[in-house]
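Extended Data, panel c. Modelled sequence:
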Amino acid sequence: MGNWIGRGALAAVVLFGLIQLVPYGRDHSNPPVLKEPEWDSPRTRELFFQTCANCHSYETEWPWYASVAPVSWLVQHDVEEGREHLNVSRWGHGKQHGDEAAKMVREGEMPPWFYLPTHPEARLDEAQQRELLHGLVATFGDEEEEH
């Protein structure tokens, strides 16, 4: 029985080492900021960058675990997807979904639950969340108001 446990542990260590060779997830690029939206206030920008910018801008702060597979794969995917939907660092370049930002925060979809344990600064109290929602609507509009 102990021999199987040892072999299993060795296999896990070897597999962990091998997946580190996969290049995806370690290209932590932060291209230059092209243009930001016209924020309704400096406070909205501050709250956005505190809560959302790691995935929705070119000013991502890459944590150490973003270089260790398989977590690096998930982090890279989330940042790429976030930037694809809303990227405040390339405002006016390509399709942006800023009008959905307030809805996503309002419905608790953003920031995602799995982001918060490692980014406690992204947890907003009720007053901060109201401020952010008001600022997002003032800056980007609100998808719900358009329907």
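The mean pLDDT is 90. This feature is highlighted in the accompanying rendering.
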